[in-house]
Amino acid sequence: MSVKKIKHVTIVGVGLLGGSAALAMKAHDPSVQVAGVGRRQVSLDAALDVGAIDTAHFDPAECVGKSDLVILATPVGAFERHLKAAAGALGRNTLVTDVGSTKVKVARLARRILGPGGPFVGSHPMAGSEQKGVRFSRADLFVGASCIVTPTSDTRPEAVDTIEAFWKTLGMRVVRRSPAAHDRAVARISHLPHVLASLMMLLPGNNDLEVSASGFRDVTRLASGDPEMWRDILLTNRGAVLAALDKFSTETAKLRDLIDQGDGAAIEKFLARSKKRRDTKIVSQIVDRRISAE
Amino acid sequence: MSVKKIKHVTIVGVGLLGGSAALAMKAHDPSVQVAGVGRRQVSLDAALDVGAIDTAHFDPAECVGKSDLVILATPVGAFERHLKAAAGALGRNTLVTDVGSTKVKVARLARRILGPGGPFVGSHPMAGSEQKGVRFSRADLFVGASCIVTPTSDTRPEAVDTIEAFWKTLGMRVVRRSPAAHDRAVARISHLPHVLASLMMLLPGNNDLEVSASGFRDVTRLASGDPEMWRDILLTNRGAVLAALDKFSTETAKLRDLIDQGDGAAIEKFLARSKKRRDTKIVSQIVDRRISAE
Hints:
The structure is a homodimer. Chain A has a domain at 8-177: NAD(P)-binding Rossmann-like Domain (Rossmann fold). In chain A, 52% of the residues lie in helices and 12% in strands. Chain A is built from 11 helices and 8 strands. Chain A is globular.
């Protein structure tokens, strides 16, 4: 495995994820230099203020030339603009990755703009929160969480190795998937749940919400996510989201029939199957990761 | 307002809720005597062990005669059996309430067994967790949460006042609703979310779950609830659950069309509306309650 040392990084989009990646890199190696690219002076100032970035820029072409790594950390819908702005200025050995939540369209876009076998390797660190902005950044945001790295058939092996090693230094568990397998998986474990949480939040009336409790608070937490970011996710992962949604609707209709028929035994069996799956696959996973992160 | 003093209580079903109610009463007034009724010696022993109950019984008829209050805290499906067992032995001034999650059927059942204008006043403390058993009981489980009290047209006013005052001494915010209004509300804020969480948990494959993160963990938390208890809830609130589910499916189909059409503006508007509703009605409510509970 050939891994390149990362000494200078450009982060395009200094929000929660970009800022946290910067703080995590600096915690790991205080000599790393981070250039931040943003749209608004106030965000860049905040990123300088919390010590996430060393220099602030409006145009990635100003800083990507000396970077070992460029990380796209804006909403996915802005990637095209930034890739085009950076493309001509990249250093000969600069790698490019991202933290976006969809991968098929992003991989296609990067191939089109940066060329086949180019410097791009897609990443999706499965960390974050419904909070927004560099002020919520934390050096430990990624610790113990999974990062899905999504090489394509023409990605250079040393580029994949370097990107995977990079996320590991930030404390992540790295999993490799094709862009298509990634998109199918996150449609089921993230994008569809987000859509359903948002729908659930709009169903009750104000009188109903007045008596809601911690269950409703948790099941709707995702609905507090950033609408612009999530619009881009749903648009760029449309096919996989629709497939997940249709499967979900079919299963919902089956369960509806069981409730309508008052089939207590079948309802209990369904609930027990779901509980068992969560208790064995999710609750135990949480415990495992907590231990491995300590 | 005429409120009766509660000095002796029978709790039928000493699990998380029954045990927590007992601990909360004793924390408020150490002289309160609690009789626990259970099916299994091991649960009763555990309840004695954690100091939730003072005496243990298999038959409610043994203890309800001297109780000021009887609290049904088993799954709803067992209420009929316990009400029948207790009915002949109740003291002249004994009140009966419950902690069940559905109210229309429970109110009818109590009226049938205990008589119209009888000692029953339904309650639904909106507290709990996916944990099960008296060992997880906490004296502060109810503090700051809502309790829905559901009198019917023939409930005696002093009985309602006493039950409402009781939950207030345990730190709860009391809200009064008719049984039907209660059932509609909880179908939307609790029962449907439970069903959707259980369905979401079964959609991804094992490979998908391997990379799931905190969002999926939270949105599926309800799926770890007790299958037997939730079977009874869905069976006894069938009409309201089906109505909520059908409304949800209609809204889901509308959103599906927006995603299918790639209508970014409409998708963002939907997401922003849901986020605003959660941020103003749920997040702010959590902050308010935390302050009032301090």
